[in-house]
Structure formats: C-alpha cells, structure tokens
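Z., the sequence and structure:
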Amino acid sequence: MKLLKLTFGLLFLLIVTSCVTTLPLNQQFYNTKKVGVILQVDSIGMARDGGQGLLDMALTSGNRFTETLKKVEPKFNLNETLKSEITNILNSKNKQFQFIDKKIDYQNLTNFEKPNSEKKYSKKDFRNLKAINNVDEILFVKVKYGILVSYSGFIELDKQGYVNIGTEVIDLNDNSLLQQENFQTVAKMNGNWKKGEDFGNLTNSINDAINNSISTLKTKF
C-alpha cells in the first residue's frame, strides 16, 4: 500500500511537470515594440511535494499553516518587489514597457485555436489586449509563494520556503509565444517553522526563496 501511494504521488508529479512547456526567450523580444506587463501574485499559501495518495492528501489538508502564513504575509510585499525587479530588467535592456494593473482572469480567457504552424502559441487568447492597452506584446507573470511541505504518505518530511514563477511572453499580432518558463525556488528552514520571534524561521526561509527566485528570473531575460 505504501509503495502504491508513493507511485501515485510520483506519477502525479511527473504528469504535472510534463505539462509545462519551456521555451527560452526569443531575441525578437528586444526590438522596438512595447510590452505590457501583467503581474499576478497569489496570496501566500502552502504547497506540497512528495508521494501521496488521495487519502493522504485528505488527511493533510494544510489548514494548520493558514493562520501563521497570514500573520507573516504583510512582511513580504512580493508584488512590489517583483514589480521593481522587472522594471530594472526591462530598463537594462532598453525595452519599452508598461504595467497593466487590471487583473486578468487567466482561466476565463478564451481558449486559443492554434493554426497550422510550427510556432508555439499561448493556450489563451491575449490578442484583444493589444488595442485596449496600446501594446504589441504581453509579459504575463504568475507567482505563488509560501511554505512547501514534503510528504511520504501522510508523514511530513520537511518544510521549506518556496516561490513558483511562471512567465509567458506573447506576440499580440498572432498570439504566438516568444517565451514560456516555469520555475520553483526553495530555501531551507533553519529550525521549527512556528518558532522564532514573529515566526522568524518561516519568514527568513520565505525571504531566502524570494531572493533565489529573483536571481533565477534575471537569467530568463
């Protein structure tokens, strides 16, 4: 039974990972066109790693982390941190850009019907944003962060601070992808996650993961 749980968890992880397409940045991006930046940072939360069956997941809902995570969330202001870093990256490349503050519901965007072409395309149709925002391209950045808990069945093995960033650069002329990346950074937790002044162990671990993610983000552009 334990082997079955582990196999199920690993299989689930492999399926999810295999669905993520990686496309390095097309140097066409560094042209005179203007890009609209959509930055969406989810509320702080708990993510899981390792091998678990459905019953194990039900027994380890993660609700016990919610209250503490909400207490430390105001310390990070990850949206403004990433906004500043993206600004620095694009300015260093002399790329014209503007931030689009209106929140985009990615899941409810129209699905894009891929034409018969060797190009890669976004699964969602962003083209209507061209005229609305007077931009030629979209840089869509989706961010999740918080605590990553590793499991073997229902047994907790480890806890780390984590940040997951997914990016897409879309050419609004035809909805083709100029880049697609998804990466996750983690940082060791030095001590019990609930201990330390104002949950310092947890806070420091998440801060380290944020710094690691910014370093990785810079390499993608």
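The helical segments are 2-18, 54-59, 66-72, 78-92, 129-133, 200-219. Residues 200-219 form the longest helix (20 residues).

Let me know what you think.
H.
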